[in-house]
Specification:
The chain has nine helices and 14 strands. The chain is an alpha+beta fold. Strands 3-4-2-1-14-13 form a six-stranded mixed sheet, with no helix packed on it. Strands 5-6-7-10-12-11 form a six-stranded mixed sheet, with no helix packed on it. A hairpin with a 2-residue loop joins strand 8 and strand 9. The protein is globular, with a radius of gyration of 20 Å. It starts with a helix and ends with a strand.
């Protein structure tokens, strides 16, 4: 029994891309929680040791090997950069945040070069603008997303990532060119539509459509170096984000589970890049949001 479960688990971990995404986008649902497969492996290992089952222990080599190959690198410390890097913070601050000033102070304390925020609503957005102004003199807000920078910005514009089924007025994408000491970088901030898990599976159609629109915009970007910061409402293993992960690199080290803040089970707040390397990514202490902020170092090529 244990051996059979171990083989099945190894197959899911190793060949999750072959799981069909219907009905209910089951493939994306499995991919959203793949890292937690390691806990199942540990549980099976304990049972196998208690029962002294040599067959089960041998069978467990498959899921152990697959998990280590897939996620083991995230446990290693990130490589030291050569100095040509930007420290970036991504944070969904929550439209119900009761302490935007405290959240702003926490983000300033990170020392980041760039700070990307989502769910910016009145009157909180004015608090962020005032609180961050001294440390981040350059910023742009479009719709409910914004970017604050220590370096000058230009070319600020809305990025249309609205799925056809969403009403007009929905605006969750912005782009600006950051004139960093190491060259120009096109910075994108995005908040993709939410997904829901129910009896019918994973409801992610709008998220997937928005990811496709964002992927096209980035593919057409004329500035070579690109950094994407956002609440993408999906993990990097989720095939729904393939329009982005197929052309952008993501963190090489760190799990940085960011949601929900009370008991994080997945990193849906992402930092991705083109012509740059996203090194170690980690979470920052909780703020007044239901998301944890994530911080990463982006080394430019």
């Amino acid at each position: 029994m244990i051996a059979g479960v171990a083989v099945l688990l190894g197959g899911v971990l190793g060949f999750h891309r072959l799981v069909p995404n219907w009905p209910g986008r089951i493939g994306s649902l499995i991919e959203s929680f793949l890292p937690w497969g390691g806990l199942l492996v540990v549980a099976l290992l304990v049972v196998a040791l208690v029962r002294r089952s040599a067959v089960a222990l041998v069978a467990l080599l498959l899921p152990v090997g697959v998990w280590v190959d897939t996620f083991g690198g995230l446990l290693l410390p990130g490589e030291e950069g050569d100095g040509r890097e930007l420290v970036v913070v991504q944070h969904n601050v929550s439209d119900e945040n009761r302490d935007p000033a405290g959240t702003a102070r926490a983000l300033i304390g990170s020392g980041a070069d760039l700070v990307a925020l989502e769910e910016l609503v009145d009157p909180q957005v004015a608090v962020y603008e005032k609180s961050l102004a001294a440390d981040y003199p350059h910023h742009v807000v479009r719709g409910t997303v914004g970017l604050w920078s220590k370096h000058p910005l230009s070319g600020e514009q809305v990025v249309d990532i609205k799925p056809p089924s969403i009403e007009k007025g929905w605006s969750r994408g912005v782009r600006a060119v950051v004139h960093s000491p190491y060259g120009d970088v096109a910075a994108y901030v995005a908040h993709l539509p939410s997904v829901r898990v129910g009896v019918g599976g994973l409801a992610s159609q709008r998220r997937d459509e928005s990811a496709s629109l964002l992927g096209r915009a980035i593919a057409d970007e004329s500035v070579e170096a690109v950094v994407l910061l956002g609440d993408l409402n999906g993990v990097v293993e989720d095939r729904g984000l393939r329009p982005l992960t197929s052309q952008l690199s993501f963190a090489e080290s760190g799990f940085a589970f960011s949601f929900p803040a009370a008991f994080p089970v997945a990193r849906i707040d992402q930092v991705m890049a083109r012509s740059a390397t996203v090194g170690a990514i980690r979470t920052l202490p909780a703020t007044g949001s239901d998301h944890l902020p994530v911080l990463a170092r982006v080394a430019l090529e």
